[in-house]
Amino acid sequence: MSTTRDHSRAEGGGDAEAGPRTEPRNEQAPERIRENKAARSPAPRPPDQHDGNDKAAEKPKSRWPLIILGIVVLLAIIGGVIYWFLTRGLEDTDDAYTEGNAISIAANVSGYVTELDINDNSLVKAGQLLFKIDPRTYVAARDQARANLSLAQAQLASSEVNLDIARVRAPANLLQARA
Predict the structure, then answer these.
(1) Which of 128, 148, 129, 131 lies closest to 140 in space, CA to CA?
(2) Average pLDDT of the chain to the nearest whole number
(3) pLDDT tens-digit map of 62-116
(4) What domain range is 131 assigned to?
(5) Strand partners, 132
(6) Is 117 contained in some domain?
(7) Is 170 among the domain residues?
(8) Is 7:19 a contact under the CB 8 Å cutoff?
(9) CA-wise closest residue to 20 among 36, 4, 42, 9
(10) Residue 132: how many CB atoms within 10 A of its CB?
(11) Residue 134, in any domain of the structure
């Protein structure tokens, strides 16, 4: 601050400026300011001079972190390339729909499919065989039904014989009961 302003403040004149300043704020010459700054900063040391504080700078840095980082990056790149090769032909979506005629197929009988005569997205014609169902369960059911039929026919023949016997014995038993 200038001395003029300090005098006005001391006299109770407030903060008002008393006029233009005639004195420089810093009384030192600019050349001297540069010299003081240069004197305050330490001079750079030549590389051949060492003191006891530079031991950390002399220790060679380990290359292991860089080697490990390089290996991790290389493995990530290899994994990304493998993933891309395995999934490059796959389509993935959450809102997919099909265009065309989707038809449900229901067989008259249930069972395991043993032979498939068509491929995905192939054109089929009416009456074309699409697949075959395992016939073992139906062959067993057919054989069981034939055995039941043979048993029923044998029981019918036995019942017819018993009816003929009853027709002959019934009048004789009636005559015997009346006598």
Answers:
(1) 148
(2) 77
(3) 899 999 999 999 999 999 999 999 999 887 777 777 677 777 878 788 888 899 9
(4) 113-178
(5) 115
(6) yes
(7) yes
(8) no
(9) 4
(10) 13
(11) yes
| pTM beyond cutoff 0.90 | no
Q: Residue 132 in contact with residue 113, Cβ under 8 Å?
A: yes
Q: Look at residues 141, 120, 143 and name the one whose alpha carbon lies nearest to residue 130.
A: 120
Residue 173 lies in a domain: yes
H/E run at residue 139: helix 136-178
**Number of neighbours of residue 25 by Cβ within 10 angstroms:** 7
pLDDT of amino acid 108? 83
Tokens encoding 130? 């699409």
Taking the CB of residue 131, how many other CB atoms lie within 10 A of it? 12
Contacts of 134 (CB under 8 A, 6+ apart): 111, 112, 113, 114
Rounded CA-CA distance 26/29 in Å is 8
Domains of the chain: total: 1
